[in-house]
Q: What sequence folds into this?
């Protein structure tokens, strides 16, 4: 069945460091892909999305490119800030059954 | 204006009690969801309703019963609460099944 696998955390980085959180997917057909962010004490918020191969989603300095050949949607940011500390979830919308599948989440802590 | 609101935000109660969590969305969305998030941030879907009809009912004890009086509301009633029910419960909605979801801020349930 459809699923997403993301790198396990926790991840700890210094401010201004480069961030990569890996996400790979398994799906029938061509799903849409998403990154959600959950700040402490809050619900999940949509961070960015891509709906077809080679699309790049971007928001708040974060980027992710839909790579069909490697079935990946890695999240990147060039220079993280303390305010980026949160849990990040990769997700896909499976075409069959139209269901959403979330990854297990990756906790990021950015230290000054 | 809050898009997806859940009440209460915190719920502390004793084992064996019955409790309800309410959820309302003012986005005009057709689909609503309940998720359970454990202490490791793993997010598990419990139920999904589309226009008041149940469409996803994952393997959840039948002590959990969702009720959707109209498409803007999806409440969760839990009977005979157990220690393992302690978690954060999130309500979410989407325009249609499979579209990006908007989350509430969660209800933190603690069983004593």
A:
């Amino acid at each position: 069945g459809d699923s997403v696998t993301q790198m396990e955390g926790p991840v700890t980085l210094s401010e201004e460091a480069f961030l990569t959180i890996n996400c790979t997917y398994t799906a029938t057909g061509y799903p849409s892909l998403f990154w959600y962010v959950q700040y402490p004490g809050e619900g999940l918020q949509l961070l960015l999305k891509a709906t077809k191969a080679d699309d790049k989603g971007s928001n708040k300095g974060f980027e992710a490119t839909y790579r069909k050949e490697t079935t990946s949607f890695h999240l990147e940011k060039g220079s993280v800030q303390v305010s980026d500390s949160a849990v990040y979830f990769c997700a896909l919308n499976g075409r069959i059954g139209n269901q959403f599948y979330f990854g297990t989440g990756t906790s990021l802590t950015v230290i000054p | 204006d809050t898009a997806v609101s859940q009440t209460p935000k915190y719920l502390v109660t004793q084992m064996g009690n019955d409790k309800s969590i309410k959820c309302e969305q003012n986005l005009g969305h057709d689909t609503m969801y309940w998720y359970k998030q454990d202490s490791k941030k793993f997010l598990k879907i419990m139920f999904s309703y589309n226009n008041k009809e149940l469409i996803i009912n994952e393997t959840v004890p039948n002590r959990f019963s969702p009720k959707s009086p109209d498409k803007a509301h999806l409440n969760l009633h839990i009977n005979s609460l157990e220690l393992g029910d302690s978690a954060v419960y999130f309500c979410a909605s989407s325009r249609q099944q499979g579209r990006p979801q908007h989350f509430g801020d969660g209800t933190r349930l603690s069983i004593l």
